[in-house]
Specification:
single chain, mainly alpha, 72% helix, 0% strand
Length: 243
């Protein structure tokens, strides 16, 4: 694999927290490395810390009588997420926490690449794959939880027992292809958007790059929304009782 230059933040983390990194990777059997922290891992961790701090700051500021601008912004986001959930997922209130977490996590990972000196961790396929696997495990778990394992597995056989030998392989391939589809869609769009922005930044710093940076923000928002939307559809299909 080609060597990827370390970002300044990755250099700091590797200089001071290499032991922590090796301890964590050692849990999954990876041999210790001199510099175990990769750029995408550092950026993903940074986004997680930003989100935790941001919501920790928001919580004590919540007020019914005097809501601040920060609260208004997240109330709009909540209303949007709630509306989408109610529209796509029957009785979907219990799943809103996962949808919202996934949306904000992917959105902030996409947007952090706009900040000079940082890069979007979603440009590395491992990060979209991790989100896709989490989605795959989640919708299957809630499907089994909502219907019971036998009734959930019966969905794979189709509406009639006669066509079950045909439907079961098709359904299995369809479900196993979903993590791949989610991964490629998010990774390819973010990688392409970042590369286009960097090309124009290398050519000129006057006006034109700003247009592509604005486009990058739009793509970041759109891809986070599409990922969340597909997750809602998968959860809706898995938890539907009429099957």
């Amino acid at each position: 694999m080609p060597h990827v230059p370390e970002m300044w933040l990755t250099t700091i983390v590797n200089d001071h927290l290499a032991g922590v990194g090796n301890a964590l990777t050692g849990l999954v059997g990876v041999q210790p490395q001199p510099r175990p922290w990769a750029n995408f891992v550092v950026m993903e961790t940074l986004v997680a810390v930003i989100l935790i701090v941001m919501f920790a700051m928001l919580r004590p500021r919540l007020s019914v009588d005097r809501p601040g601008k920060f609260q208004h912004i997240f109330e709009l986001a909540y209303d949007f997420l709630h509306g989408q959930t109610e529209e796509l997922v029957p009785h979907g209130a219990p799943y809103m926490g996962f949808f919202g977490t996934l949306f904000f996590f992917i959105l902030f990972m996409n947007l952090i690449g706009v900040v000079p000196g940082f890069e979007s961790p979603t440009m590395n396929p491992s990060v979209p794959l991790g989100c896709a696997v989490a989605t795959f495990l989640y919708y299957n778990f809630v499907g089994i939880q909502a219907n019971g394992i036998l009734k959930y597995l019966a969905q794979f056989a189709g509406p009639m027992l006669l066509i079950a030998p045909l439907m079961i392989p098709i359904e299995l391939i369809s479900h196993l292809a979903r993590p791949l589809s989610l991964t490629i869609r998010l990774y390819a769009n973010m990688f392409a958007g970042e590369r286009v922005t960097m090309v124009f930044l290398s050519l000129t710093y006057f006006l034109i790059p700003a247009v592509f940076m604005g486009l990058h923000v739009f793509v970041s928002l759109l891809q986070a929304y599409i990922f969340m939307l597909l997750t809602m559809m998968y959860v809706a299909g898995a938890t539907a009782h009429e099957h």
